[in-house]
Amino acid sequence: IAGPDPNDGTTRGLADVEGADPDASYAAAADGDVDGLTVGIPTELFDGADERVVETVEAAIADLEAQGAETTEISLPSVEHAVQAYYVIAMAEASSNLARFDGVRYGHRSESDGNWNESFAETREAFGPEVKRRILLGTYALSAGYHDKYYEKAQDARAWVRQDFDEAFEDVDVIASPTMPVLPFELGESLDDPLRMYLADANTTPVNLANLPAVSVPAGEADGLPVGLQLVGPKFGERTVIRAASAVEGR
Prior knowledge:
Layout: H1 26-29, E1 38-42, H2 51-66, E2 70-74, H3 82-97, H4 116-122, H5 129-142, H6 147-168, E3 174-178, H7 194-199, H8 205-209, E4 214-222, E5 225-232, H9 238-249
Parallel strand pairs: 1-2, 1-3
Antiparallel strand pairs: 3-5, 4-5
C-alpha cells in the first residue's frame, strides 16, 4: 500500500513535497544496490541491548558493508527519553480517539437490559485490559493540572527526537539498529509486566515520534529465536529504506 488516502487525514501526498517524485516506483527500488550507501549506527540503540541481539545485527550490517555500503557511528541522545514520551502521547491520543466508541454510533453495544447509565458503562466490556489501561492513563495525562506536566513535556521530547534524526540524516542515508533490544518473549510472557513490554519498544518508538519511514527485516537468529534489523530513512525516504532492506533480504 503506497500513496495518500483521501479518507485519511494523517496521510500526505508527494505532489507538494519539494524534491519528491509522486510517480516513483517502490518496487523498482528493491534492487539491492547499496554501493556507496552511508549507514548510520546509533550508539544509543545498541547500548544495553542483549549481546546476542547485537552480535546478530552487527553481522547483518557487516554484510551490507561487504556489498558496498559504508558505516559511520552517530549519536541520538534524545532517544533515551523516547519510550516515556511515546507512551504519554500514544495513551493520551488513545483516550481522546476512543471516546467516540460509546456504543451509539461507534463500537461495541452492550446487550444490557438495565438503565441508560448501566448500558453506557457496559459498552466498555469489549475493551481488553491493555486498552483500558491506556485509556485511563491517557485521560490522566490530559486532565487538568497534569496536561502541562506530562503531555506538553512529552511533545517537547518528541521535538527533540525529530531534531536529532534530522541532524543525523544530514550525514547518512539510512540508520540501522536492532528492531528490539531483547530476544522475543514467549507467548503471553509479558502480559503481566506492561513496563517490560513497553521497554521492548525502545528502538522503534523514536522512529514513530519522528514520523520517519522504517522497516524491520530478519537479521538472523540467536539461540533459535529471530532477531530483526531496523532500517530507518529520512522523511519520504521510503525508496532508500526499501533498497537497503532488499540488500539484507537478498544476502
